[in-house]
Design goal:
By secondary structure, the chain is α+β, with helices and mostly antiparallel strands. Helices cover 47% and strands 18% of the residues. α2 (42-61) runs antiparallel to α4.
């Protein structure tokens, strides 16, 4: 599923459904699609998302513990770093910020 975010203050943003729902929940929303935020609720949702992203960055910055019994040889799949949540969230953060400045509603659908 693809989720598209709409605002009169910013270009439409498309995201994979699992990422979009995760970000919606971090904003304090239920994660239902379709959905909307009224203009007066956008600044609070933006602040919640930014705080969650900052918390995730702090968690990712800590080195993961090395599993016991695993030798130093690493698979190619283990070498590929995952895309950080902050990178995935950036377009949505920009859309929310523009919407907050302009006093616009934000909607999303499939």
């Amino acid at each position: 599923m693809i989720v598209t975010f709409h605002s009169e203050a910013y270009a439409d943003i498309m995201m994979f459904g699992d990422v979009a729902i995760q970000l919606l929940k971090l904003m304090g929303h239920s994660g239902t699609v379709p959905g909307a935020l009224l203009a007066e609720d956008v600044p609070e949702a933006l602040a919640s998302l930014k705080k969650a992203i900052a918390d995730d960055r702090a968690r990712v910055a800590a080195p993961p513990p090395k599993p016991e019994g695993k030798d130093d040889e690493v698979d190619d799949a283990d070498r590929e770093p995952p895309v950080q949540l902050a990178h995935r969230a950036l377009p949505l953060i920009e859309l929310l910020a523009a919407s907050a400045r302009a006093g616009c509603n934000v909607m999303w659908d499939r």
